[in-house]
């Protein structure tokens, strides 16, 4: 595929790519669902010695990955000149939210067995749980305003200001993961470096174009 076709693909190609990305984004959830079925119904050791922890952490990992992938859309769009990538941003952001919800649901159900008192104590006493919960709270209004209708209702300027929360959520999500890991910090460091690069690219572009908003877009534009 030529550089020109990558920058200006036909609409049907973009639609096909969007469909493929949608299906690929479901693969982690599907694999975990199969693993849960194998462990619960077939008695297979498909989720390790601590299935609840394995499921919760796996969902959290994918939530963070999709969050970073969403943040990568705008820098990649500018660097590579692939303007069509913006059509994937809302979907990727909503998948990040989808995996966050599954991550939290797994924690609430498998780890805490829906014990509200224990969950509240966990949020108050364990810093990484506190930060993770704060990330969820900040992500809720972004997901709720992800539609084009909400952009029109809020107005473009207010909508953009609201969706700048993603630049708070990103560091909080990385910090949540960092504090959760007890020994090997290799993976948290990788995520932190990726996040720093993505935000750094935006900062450099903003300084070169001072007349434009500091951060543009969000998870749903």
Distance between the termini: 27 Å
Name the helicity range. over 70%
User: Structural class, from secondary structure content?
Assistant: mainly alpha
Number of contiguous helices: 10
Provide a compact summary of the structure:
With 221 residues, the chain is an all-alpha fold. It has helices spanning 3-7, 11-40, 51-80, 86-111, 116-125, 127-144, 148-154, 156-163, 166-180, 186-208. The protein is globular.
List the helices and strands and how they pair.
Blueprint (H helix, E strand, L loop, with lengths): L2 H5 L3 H30 L10 H30 L5 H26 L4 H10 L1 H18 L3 H7 L1 H8 L2 H15 L5 H23 L13
Helix pairs in contact: 2-3, 2-4, 3-4, 3-9, 3-10, 4-6, 5-6, 6-9, 7-8, 9-10
Description:
It is a single chain. The protein contains 10 helices and no strands. The mean pLDDT is 88. The protein has 221 residues and is mostly helical. Helices cover 78% and strands 0% of the residues.
């Amino acid at each position: 595929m030529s550089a020109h076709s990558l920058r200006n693909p036909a609409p049907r190609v973009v639609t096909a790519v969007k469909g493929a990305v949608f299906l690929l984004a479901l693969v982690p959830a599907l694999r975990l669902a199969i693993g849960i079925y194998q462990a619960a119904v077939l008695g297979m050791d498909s989720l390790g010695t601590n299935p609840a922890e394995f499921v919760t952490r796996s969902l959290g990992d994918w939530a963070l990955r999709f969050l970073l992938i969403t943040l990568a859309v705008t820098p990649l769009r500018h660097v590579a000149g692939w303007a069509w990538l913006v059509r994937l941003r809302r979907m990727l952001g909503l998948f990040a939210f989808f995996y966050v919800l599954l991550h939290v649901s797994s924690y609430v159900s498998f780890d805490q067995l829906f014990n509200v008192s224990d969950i509240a104590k966990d949020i108050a006493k364990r810093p990484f749980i506190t930060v993770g919960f704060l990330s969820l709270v900040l992500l809720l209004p972004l997901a709720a305003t992800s539609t084009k209708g909400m952009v029109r209702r809020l107005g473009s300027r207010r909508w953009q200001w609201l969706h700048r929360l993603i630049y708070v959520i990103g560091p909080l999500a990385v910090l949540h993961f960092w504090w959760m890991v007890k020994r090997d910090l290799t993976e948290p460091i990788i995520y932190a470096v990726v996040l720093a690069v993505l935000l750094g690219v935006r900062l450099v572009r903003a300084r070169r174009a001072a007349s434009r908003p500091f951060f543009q877009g969000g998870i749903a534009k």
